[in-house]
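stage 2 :: seqdesign
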């Protein structure tokens, strides 16, 4: 029995060692994939749609059709499917996600699509990371009776009640020190800026979503043996203490913390974006650059004001490669809030500034690693009790955000009768007027003082997220 037990013990020891090695590799080598066919986000309601699937392990979902509950005319589809798979070895990883739909109709046929394919692929080895979104397609797109050629990250107006984004794509590399790729694509992203088809303003409908991420650690550094002369000698060498991760700059965990039971009350807080906004619960979703999504993405028009959610102190105003223009706010209770991807800061976003809830800190954009994606605010909640965990001390803010007061619910200044000379007066409500820089021109490119060269410099040119202006009119502002 003893002879039989020794091999079993050796196998157990090897098993433990292998498991430890696998756990160590998982921190820097991994893959993930996510996909769904339909997701509808209606203000005041939980997100609805077809089931989302994720890998690992491999998962798939399919159906003969989908109709949006309580709004059948708003969205119907034919057959749909979503499929994900992911593989990981010691030095390589790969993943793939794909979603397809046929016969999509929105708002009684005002938006029609014959076929949608969203696909994302990612692969990484110790020496390279690569991926592709290029096989995604939208076939037979018709908007308001007119055929449209969908473009990557294209934007098309839907009369005066909304707009649609086509083949919305974003790609980034792996985490610092690794080789990797992270890509996302949404075939169609429909936004309502006004009530339409039985759905309220602020509704967002996403058709065909695929996400794939993979990364791999580089080869381990070569080890050097200790010279025989030093064997047996002990010499203390002071090891410098690694700096604490700077909030918002460098996450430390590969997965969200578990069993967190911190809850914030919505009392005393306001929603961080002024005006129409849409979002879904994407907290904890895989991200190649930071491991996992530490907050929520609040999609809004370029330049929408970003507000202090509470009375508090502003700090860490500036830039990092992931968050772009970013700012932090600490409330009077010690909780901290992170804002990222701003297009610009307001003059009140100054380190150490004491601000009141509702103060404009900046404006919605897509700076940092959000470049090329729809304009949005990345927002995180770091309760005081979790600050000792560093950047990973966060909670899922989705339900808390749903409960907050939206400042678009406050009436905007309107003309009222009874003013001097019969002219209406303006009620003193709503935010103070402001501005955001949308475009600039460098006059250093002008040639001398030739007036024609100056006109060329200042000639209008299209820019990302621009809004069409009707002939003889001004752009509509529905914020």
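stage 2 :: out
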């Amino acid at each position: 029995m003893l002879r039989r037990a020794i091999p079993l013990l050796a196998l157990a020891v090897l098993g433990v060692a292998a498991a430890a090695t696998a756990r160590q590799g998982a921190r820097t080598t991994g893959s993930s994939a996510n996909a769904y066919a339909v997701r509808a986000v209606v203000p005041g309601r939980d997100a609805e749609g077809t089931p989302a699937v994720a890998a690992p392990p491999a998962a798939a979902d399919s159906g003969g059709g989908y109709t949006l509950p309580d709004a059948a005319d708003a969205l119907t589809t034919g057959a749909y499917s979503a499929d994900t798979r992911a593989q990981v070895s010691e030095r390589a990883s790969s993943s793939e996600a794909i979603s397809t739909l046929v016969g999509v109709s929105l708002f009684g046929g005002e938006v029609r699509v014959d076929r949608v394919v969203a696909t994302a692929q990612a692969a990484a080895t110790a020496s390279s990371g690569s991926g592709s979104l290029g096989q995604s397609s939208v076939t037979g797109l018709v908007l308001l009776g007119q055929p449209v050629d969908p473009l990557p990250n294209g934007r098309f107006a839907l009369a005066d009640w909304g707009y649609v984004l086509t083949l919305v794509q974003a790609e980034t590399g792996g985490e610092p020190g690794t080789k990797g790729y992270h890509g996302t694509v949404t075939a169609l992203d429909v936004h309502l800026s006004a009530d339409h088809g039985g759905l309220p303003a602020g509704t967002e409908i996403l058709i065909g979503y695929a996400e794939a991420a993979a990364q791999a650690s580089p080869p381990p550094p070569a080890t050097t043996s200790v010279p025989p002369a030093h064997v047996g000698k002990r010499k203390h060498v002071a090891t410098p203490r690694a700096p604490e991760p700077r909030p918002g700059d460098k996450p430390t965990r590969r997965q969200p913390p578990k069993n967190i039971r911190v809850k914030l009350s919505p009392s005393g807080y306001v929603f961080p974006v002024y005006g129409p906004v849409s979002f879904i619960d994407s907290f904890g979703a895989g991200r190649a650059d930071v491991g996992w999504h530490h907050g929520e993405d609040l999609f809004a028009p370029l330049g929408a004001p970003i507000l202090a959610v509470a009375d508090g102190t502003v700090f860490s105003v500036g830039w990092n490669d992931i968050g772009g223009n970013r700012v932090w706010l600490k409330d009077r209770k010690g909780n901290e809030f992170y804002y990222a991807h701003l297009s610009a800061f307001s003059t009140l976003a100054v380190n150490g500034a004491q601000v009141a809830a509702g103060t404009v800190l900046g404006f919605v954009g897509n700076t940092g690693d959000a470049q090329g994606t729809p304009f949005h605010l990345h927002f995180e909640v770091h309760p005081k009790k979790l600050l000792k965990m560093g950047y990973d001390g966060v909670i899922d803010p989705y339900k808390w955000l749903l409960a907050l007061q939206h400042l678009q619910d406050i009436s905007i200044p309107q003309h009222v009768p009874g003013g001097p000379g019969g002219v209406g007066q303006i009620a003193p409500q709503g935010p103070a007027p402001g501005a955001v820089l949308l475009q600039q021109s460098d006059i250093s490119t002008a040639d001398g003082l030739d007036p024609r060269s100056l006109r060329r410099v200042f000639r209008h040119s299209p820019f990302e997220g621009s809004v069409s202006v009707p002939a003889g009119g001004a752009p509509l502002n529905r914020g």
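stage 3 :: structure notes
- The chain is about 10% helix and 35% strand.
- The mean pLDDT is 76.
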